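Page 42, continued from yesterday. The earlier attempt failed because a stray header line got pasted into the input along with the sequence. Redoing it now with the clean sequence only.
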Amino acid sequence: MKHTFTLILVALFAGFLLLQVPQAKAQQSDTLLVAWQNLDGTVNTDALRNAIAVDTPRVATRVYKLQKGGFYWITETITNDGWPLRIVGEKPGTGERENPAVLQMVARDDGSVNGRMITGGGDITLKNLYIIGADNNGVQTYYQPIQIDASNSRFIFDNCVFERTNFALVAFTAKNNDIFFTNCKFRNLIGQPSTQQWEGRGISIWADQDSVVVENCTFFNLGFAAFQLEGGAANYVRFDHNTLVNIGRNINAGNWWREAYFANNLIINGFWHGEGHADLSSPGRDPRATSSGMFSIGPLPSKYGPEQGRRILFANNATWRDPAFTTFYDDSIATQYFVNPVTKEDFLDVYENMVAMDTLWLSTKPDLGTYPSDIIPDMIQNITDLRAGITPAHPYFWKLPEDPANPGNVCNVCPSWPLPENFSYTDAALMTGGTDNLPLGDLNWFPEKKVQWEANKAQFIADMEAKAGTRVEFEVEQTAEAEDGMLAGDAAVNTFQGFSYFQMDGGGYIEWTFDLPTAGQYDLNIWTNMRGNHQRGQHTIINGVEIHDSAHGWGELIYDDASGVTSGMEINDWTWVRWTQADLNEAGALTFLAG
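This time it went through. Structure tokens are written below.
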């Protein structure tokens, strides 16, 4: 594929001496260097995917090494079916042509785009990469371009840049994994076109996990939330030393954790959307929830254990919100605080091991190296449009790369390198504001302090965790199911007459397990009630994989009386909805084994 991309790259790399490098060259037993250029200097599309596909038998410790300054374009999905996938770029430099290796989807020769870069079926390590969620035409509506469907695995994302996608670039759909995001940058994760206030997420996790660590990362210009763990719980979460700038809504979405620590973070313009009438009056909202808060704790479903066994800490976080947003709210939009009233009344005030401490609202803006005040009017216009139902809403990207062949236009295949933002500061109180007496926020903006943190990491983390009190552990001695019980005394079975159904507004799930006599592909019939809504979403998971309809492709299975499979459905009565494999994004989701 040389046609439309050759001009861009020739302009971008003019003056380069092109070497005749083999496309994949084994340097040592566990490292395979993957070159990105053809001999004429154009991009060798799918060089990475092809190198992985033909690498058999694969060395168990294989690392696919990518060249800094390189462009690794992808038309077909990279998959690892049960074996560990390690893609590591050369350490990037600070020069204009020393960007991390770029991973990006591009159109096939027929103009179609696959929409998925990586489907994870085993351990994955991605390091020193610049991952762009938009394709070469600037389309960024593909849902979860990197989707992890593996369970009981380990995922490491280190020193990566994630940019330009309508939702999350990386999402996890299966259970019991260990997930680590360290030293990463998440930037310009907002909708294009912008159609809803829920677009733009840093990390999306949709199932129970063992451990999730997000450390020394920067989240800049995200439409919704930095960290989303919904539809499942986690045994351990650590969200430590992160910088967050221009986060539209919550810092965390989802709040089922057994043990969680959100500490040492610097937040600039957190939950700048505020909450409008539609938010505050949504069905099922607790009347005490006059705000949602940047952080929240939710009731833990009983299957995960008692509230007394949880250990949650919000500590040493500082935040500042631009006065321009206060002026915009003008008493019609609810200002968001650090935690909401329900979190305080039901959890922080009740349980000793749920603690919020040393949180600071800053009266003046930290002296950041970069403060993108120029886009604040665009940000306000975006949420104003969305609340008024005007779509596409006004965009507010900050410093997208310019096309060298067409000055003034965005280069869809270029990284913003070196990154134009700088969130270091010199404010004395913040420089020693952490639980470890180190600067709040991502320590990569303070290299000398980062070295100090690395040298004492274990002790710093232990000291921070101790602020939540001692761990309380409960052991399950016995389990019993109600249907196995026996009636006693004068108790009697009272059979309910009429139609019964489940309605869940505050979390939880219903699970069905069944055996099939014959393997094959089956349709999925769901009986549902829209309760007067024209559009509703339901999280639906089959064999550990969450399914999404191809008509919308959003974060849930969407029921919509105006479009898609469910067009024309009744919104005030019970309706059977039939989903076929052709209706879903996830290939093979409705294919079942016997037994």
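Notes: Residues 166 and 191 are 4 Å apart (CA to CA).
Reminder to self: strip header lines before submitting.
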